[in-house]
Amino acid sequence: MTRRIATSRWILFLGLALGGAAFDLATKSIIFQEVGAPPSAPVAVIRDVLELRTSYNPGALWGFGRDLPHSSLIFAGLSVVAGVAIVGWLFVGGAAASLPLTFALGLIMAGAIGNCYDRVVFGHVRDFVHFHIDSINFDWAIFNFADCMLVVGALTLVLFALRPEPAPVEPSAAPDESPAAAPLARDAESLPT
């Protein structure tokens, strides 16, 4: 049996999923058009810290699984399966009753759609954000906004799972057992029948 989910949760989920995916795909198109396809020269945003450097990633987040044969198709298929599971969990299983879960899974869906589109259309994911701190030799893997949405959504899920359980609510006394009901009961017994 499916649970009735508020329309506002559908709007939130679809807004995050479709809006986030559209933002991701738009930024990829703009950056790859302006900066150029790899191996074009990077464009500094914050010198020695942040630059736009285009890159192709046939694997998953941070290049995981990039050497697998047909990795783009495998990860695209996994994205579709994850998308179906997310929609089922939220709107058939009723998890959309929770605002944090709807938010987290909307972001995860946005990231999955953005990167799945790239894998199906281009055969790889387009990455372009390169964070590095040269003074301490720190160099993070090149990523995109879909990756950011996936990570923020996953972290939100973890925080949601780690939240403390609410304290149980004590049941209130039944009307017959309340102190105010006692005089009424005595009065009723003293009435003539």
UniProtKB/TrEMBL annotation:
<dbReference type="GO" id="GO:0004190">
    <property type="term" value="F:aspartic-type endopeptidase activity"/>
</dbReference>
<feature type="region of interest" description="Disordered">
    <location>
        <begin position="168"/>
        <end position="193"/>
    </location>
</feature>
<feature type="transmembrane region" description="Helical">
    <location>
        <begin position="99"/>
        <end position="120"/>
    </location>
</feature>
<keyword id="KW-0378">Hydrolase</keyword>
<feature type="transmembrane region" description="Helical">
    <location>
        <begin position="73"/>
        <end position="92"/>
    </location>
</feature>
<dbReference type="Pfam" id="PF01252">
    <property type="entry name" value="Peptidase_A8"/>
</dbReference>
<comment type="pathway">
    <text>Protein modification; lipoprotein biosynthesis (signal peptide cleavage).</text>
</comment>
<feature type="transmembrane region" description="Helical">
    <location>
        <begin position="140"/>
        <end position="162"/>
    </location>
</feature>
<keyword id="KW-1003">Cell membrane</keyword>
<feature type="compositionally biased region" description="Low complexity">
    <location>
        <begin position="170"/>
        <end position="185"/>
    </location>
</feature>
<comment type="function">
    <text>This protein specifically catalyzes the removal of signal peptides from prolipoproteins.</text>
</comment>
<dbReference type="InterPro" id="IPR001872">
    <property type="entry name" value="Peptidase_A8"/>
</dbReference>
<protein>
    <recommendedName>
        <fullName>Lipoprotein signal peptidase</fullName>
        <ecNumber>3.4.23.36</ecNumber>
    </recommendedName>
</protein>
<keyword id="KW-0472">Membrane</keyword>
<feature type="active site">
    <location>
        <position position="147"/>
    </location>
</feature>
<keyword id="KW-0812">Transmembrane</keyword>
<comment type="similarity">
    <text>Belongs to the peptidase A8 family.</text>
</comment>
<keyword id="KW-1133">Transmembrane helix</keyword>
<keyword id="KW-0064">Aspartyl protease</keyword>
<feature type="active site">
    <location>
        <position position="127"/>
    </location>
</feature>
<keyword id="KW-0645">Protease</keyword>
